[in-house]
Amino acid sequence: MERELAALQTQVKSVEETYGIDNLHLTVARGYIAKLLANGRVTRWLASHRQEYLGEFEKIAEIDTLAPLAEQDA
After folding, report:
1. Main-chain phi, psi angles of 67, to 5 degrees
2. Most buried by CB count within 10 Å: which residue of 3, 20, 34, 70?
3. Which long-range contacts (CB under 8 A, 24 or more apart) does 21-30 make?
4. What is the dihedral of CA 21, 27, 29, 34, to 10 degrees?
5. 3-state secondary structure of 68
6. What is the distance between the alpha carbons of residues 9 and 34, in angstroms, rounded to a whole number?
7. pLDDT at residue 65 in the model
8. Where do runs of H (alpha helix) occur along 38-50?
9. pLDDT at residue 73 in the model
10. What is the mean pLDDT of the chain?
11. Low-confidence ranges of the chain (pLDDT < 50)
12. Which long-range contacts (CB under 8 A, 24 or more apart) does 18-26 make?
């Protein structure tokens, strides 16, 4: 049990170390997708050729915060 706890603590530390940069990457990606969707030609092409992508991209672009879902529901 102590080994499992030590392994878990190592994993938590790893996540804590990369959280900031991961959050930055996700924020930039969300902004880029929102900018792409603002382009009518891109949106029309996606609607014609990749509707499933368009729907998912719209969901991503609408995200207000990158907080965990449990915190958003509270």
Report:
1. -70, 155
2. 34
3. 23/66, 26/66, 27/66, 29/60, 30/60, 30/61, 30/63, 30/66
4. -170
5. coil
6. 36
7. 72
8. 40-49
9. 52
10. 88
11. none
12. 23/66, 26/66
Q: Answer whether 0.70 is exceeded by the pTM.
A: no
Query: Which two structure tokens, joined as six digits, stand for 62?
Result: 């609408």
Instruction: Quote the tokens at residue 7.
Output: 């392994």
pLDDT confidence of residue 16:
87
Q: Long-range contacts for 69-74 (Cβ within 8 Å, ≥24 apart)?
A: none
Please give the pLDDT value at position 64. 82
Q: How far is CA 66 from CA 12, 35, 46, 56, in A?
A: 18, 18, 25, 16
15 with 8: CB under 8 angstroms?
Answer: no
